[in-house]
Predict the 3D structure of the following.
Amino acid sequence: QGDLRIDQHFSDSDTLFGRYSNATSGNIVNPGYFSEYAGGPIFPGNYESKGNQVVLGYTHIFSPTFLSEFRDGYSHLANTGVNFNQGSDFMEQIGIPGIDGYGYNWQAVAAFGITGVSQVGGSGNIPFNKMTNNYQYSWHFNWIHDRHSIKWGYDLFRRGMNTVQMGSPSGNFSFNGQFTQNPASPGGTGSGMADALLGLDAS
């Protein structure tokens, strides 16, 4: 990360400054543990945030009692997250064809929900891309007269956010025990784990 600032003094009445800032988080490993303490679901994977910002400011002094300040700013924030094994052909390797061929965003591990057992495999809602663009403009005036100071101007904000987040790009398989129930008396019988071992998913 870093900052670069330039100041220009044109005259005693006119000054200009500009600043550029950049910050990158680097790879943040989220293991996905202890979601109950995080206040919601945690999607395990590799995460990264990148931010860029540009600011421009111009000040003009009309007189010792009257001046104006103009500010212009833009910031861009990109948050991305991918599965730990994103881009692999894992599903093909374990005998579930037809998923990896859709491309990079689908090439990971599916989520396997087994009744009576914690979810195994991957998770939903990842990979994702979240891009935020913020624009800000302001122009203020300040007039001092005797014991009074009058300020006026405007501030304009424009914000845009684009998010692409996939529910279950590599698939979501559930095993609830319906295929290992006792046909004569299904109530209370059947094992999700047994269905999983047999490869018989309910959905």
Q: What stands out?
A: Residues 66 and 78 are 41 Å apart (CA to CA). The mean pLDDT is 85. The longest helix spans residues 192-198.
